[in-house]
Amino acid sequence: MNALLAIVAPAVAWTAYLPVGAKYALVLAALPLSGLALRAQVRETRPALDGSGLLPTTVLLALLAVSSAWSAATWADIGRYLWLYGMLLLVPLLSNALPAASAKAALAHFVAASTAVAALHLARGLGVLPDSVLWWSTVDATGNQRIGNSLLLAIGAVIGLWQARHAVALRPRAGWLACTMTIVAGLALQDRRSGMVVLPIVVLAWLLTELRMPRQRVLAVIAVLGIALAAGWSVDPVRARFEEGWRELHSAVPAERVDTSWGQRLLMVRMTAAMVQERPLTGHGVASWRLVWQQRAPAGSPLADNTTPHSEYLLIAHQLGWPGLALWLWLLVAMVMAAARRGSAGAPALVVWITIATAGLFNAVLRDAKFSLVLLMLAAVAAASSRPRRSDADGGRRRGLTPPASQAGERAAGRPRPGRHRHRCPRHAGTSTPRRG
Q1: Domain assignment present for 399
Q2: Residue 433 DSSP SS3
Q3: How far is residue 268's CA from residue 263's CA, in Å, rounded to a whole number?
Q4: What backbone phi and psi angles, to 5 degrees, belong to 293?
Q5: What pTM value is reported for the model?
Q6: DSSP string for residues in 375-423
Q7: Do 97 and 114 meet the contact criterion of CB atoms below 8 Å apart?
Q8: Domain of 35?
Q9: Average pLDDT of the chain?
Q10: Phi/psi of residue 421, each to 5°?
Q11: Beta-carbon count within 10 A of 81 CB
Q12: Long-range CB contacts (< 8 A, 24+ apart) of 142-149?
């Protein structure tokens, strides 16, 4: 079983940039293996599903299921939404089932995969990449697949920095830094704003957990903000994308004719917020946003073609009201805090969850499988990599390195351990030897 799960972890890294069908195939293979592994852990009385956000995930999924009672959506749409939101269970299942060593290796594989994709973007920018159907999910990706790749490149860059910081020898450290620089360059040429926005945020979050001195943290904030602003205005593709966004926001276009990315998002925020206020405590029910939206959006306009409000926060608030939004925030805070408590080892999980929290502001990261499958599987792998191996703890206990609580209590009370006795001779007082025979 562990041998099969050891294959799943690197597979997550190499399917990250593949089409969504490959990710679904991996999920369908990983779920039964994870279930069997957790079942074996329960039989051995080992703790399972620890620190994995199982409680807020379960409550959120239960509320979504209950809200189907007042949803106007069809049962087919309700089933599809519940299936997609049910992918949240991948995190507690995979993070506790995957071997820690395999998960750590998978993070290195993910940096390598991100470097390869970034190299393709560099080759395309230099005009040396031939046209091929092989690039349709990476360099030639469109829509949310391209946005998802942008987010993955940002995550890969920070995990590359994390690998470089903890590399012992100079040559591996230089290799990880070279991978990071390649990924950042590829991200700049990838022409999507999502990863560019997320990258400085996750870098800053990682540095604040790595650095302990207040002075170091202040310098880190100044350095990251300065580099981000300098890169934003000195790199032509980055500057062009953000200038385009600002023009979209400031252009006064009626709702009937707005067809720009940021312009539509701004209108959807305003209109969806008004829809939430209509049912603030119960929401409109799972999978109901599109039906209610088509009643509000101007008929025949580009705005009416949207299937989500392009924000996971708005989508959950519309379906479940303020209680649902509170549950979603509870889950995010719980996962970020769980990763932060594990110190430097939890940095990859911290980076992934902050990416989910940030990207969820302007994308439906749970509702769209192009985002949710890879981000949640990557979050599970990152959490598994920082989990202490139970076999090490058990082995240490057997060797006497971690005595059971009963033995520790006996020693604290001054009682000898079984199999040893105290000399009563004054010459050997305070010493102990094994009982002979």
Answers
A1: no
A2: strand
A3: 9
A4: -65, -40
A5: 0.83
A6: HHHHHHHHHHHTSPPHHHHHHHHHTTSS--HHHHHHHHTTPPPTTEEE-
A7: no
A8: 2-387
A9: 82
A10: -140, 160
A11: 24
A12: 143/370, 144/363, 144/368, 144/370, 144/371, 145/19, 145/20, 145/370, 146/190, 146/192, 147/192, 147/194, 147/363, 147/371, 148/370, 148/371, 148/374, 148/375, 149/17, 149/117, 149/190, 149/192, 149/195
- Are the C-beta atoms of residues 231 and 184 closer than 8 Å to each other? no
Kindly report, residue by residue over 200-243, the tens digit of the pLDDT: 999 999 988 888 888 888 888 888 888 777 766 666 666 666 66
Q: How is residue 325 written in tokens?
A: 């939004």
- Count CB atoms within 10 A of the CB of residue 131: 9
d(CA 354, CA 207): 13
- CA 345, CA 293: separation in Å to the nearest integer? 43
Report how many domains make up the chain: 1
DSSP 432: E
Both structure tokens of 397: 């206990």
Q: Is residue 274 part of a domain?
A: yes
Q: Are residues 9 and 377 in contact, defined by beta-carbon separation less than 8 angstroms?
A: no
Tokens read off for 432: 């102990």
Structural domain includes residue 407: no
Going by pLDDT thresholds of 50, 70 and 90, the confidence category of residue 272 is very high
Residue 404 lies in a domain: no
Q: How far, in Å, CA of 15 to CA of 25, rounded?
A: 10
CA distance 327 to 59: 8
Determine the longest span between alpha carbons in the chain, in angstroms.
100
